[in-house]
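Field reference: sequence -> structure
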Amino acid sequence: MGIPEPSSDLSRLREEILRLRRSVEELSTLNELAHAIGASLDSQEIVRKIIRTSVRSVGGEQGVITLLDRVAPDLGVTLARTTIGENRHGQYHLGQNIVGWMQINKKPLLSNTLTSDARFSSEWRDSDVKSILCVPLMVRSELTGVLSIYNKNEARGFTEDDQRLLSIVAGQSAQIIENARLYESQQEMLRMREEMRVAAKIQKNLLPQASPEFIGYDIAGLNQPAQTVGGDYYDFIPIDAGRIGICLADVSGKGVPASLLMANIQATMRSQLLVDPQPAVTLTRANILLLKSTGPETFATMFFCVLDNSSHAITYASAGHDHPFHVRANAPIQRITEGGVPLGLFDNFQYSQHQVELGPGDIIVISSDGITEAFNEQGEMFGEEQVEEILLKDVSGSAEETLHRIFAAVKRFVGNTPQSDDMTLVVVKRI
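Structure field:
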């Protein structure tokens, strides 16, 4: 048996010392990273710390974390990108070919000859990137991002040890980044809910807070938005002791955009009514103002009338709105059909106005299409006929009672089916 050469033992000892040193350095790196990112919930701050630690640990020139949008169908859609390191050549961006390769293979990629690598050379041929090390960020077997380090400072390029260390860093970091993103999404959702709550409160305050007291008449209105805020609105606008303006409008769209337009139109109607209370003039001017302040895709239907308790007549103009119901005692229900186009569609459109006299006990019911087009689980619509049946059956109660009977019938009809349109009603009854 031969005696081992001293040089051989010394070589093995040196290798073991180097291995132990690398292990200590890796543990130190991981410990430092854990402390740095463990207490933070800011995803951008976490990303920067991970990159900074990774670049320093493997001796790279620059690092990038690309977070992938798991909903978008295209590969490599980036939600966030952070670059740290020397910027002698500007910021590097992960190419589509590499992103696609990572999504397919879900494993580390190491290339020290990137510009001549047949898999990716077409994207990197004219680049200053000579070497790259990419490791996947995985959460529950799903690729959520890629950690990439560019240009090893040493001539030999990235090593298997670099790849192993970066893989460990990615394994520790992926879930932390994901948790931070989920936390930020939750906070954003809470902020949006609070904003919607405030918007709903503001919109509610814009609507009449009580039924108007108008001699000789019983008047009631109600609005139920399909979402937190909506685009329907109604208004009662006193003109003088003997006249009141009554308005019901349905703005195109849903949600916040529609509610903003609703507030705009309400302010426009109130201001124009002070200038000239004639319904045709008011709608014509409102149409011009709406065209000047909105895009071509925005419009609103509206029924606007002025009720006079001395002549017991309503003078009205309609901008493409659903035809109101006119209920008379011992007579068929009539519809108020005269009208023009919706507001916001045509420039210089001249609206016309008409008049209807109200006898004792007569009722005018104005509604948005959310009432008649309310649908049930089978997709059937409530329809105008059912409104007429309710009005023919009993109109002896107050305006508010009539209003609530219609809403109750719609509610029974739709059941638990969510509705996509706001529902608004105004009932005017001559006492």
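Note: The first strand starts at residue 60 and ends at 68.
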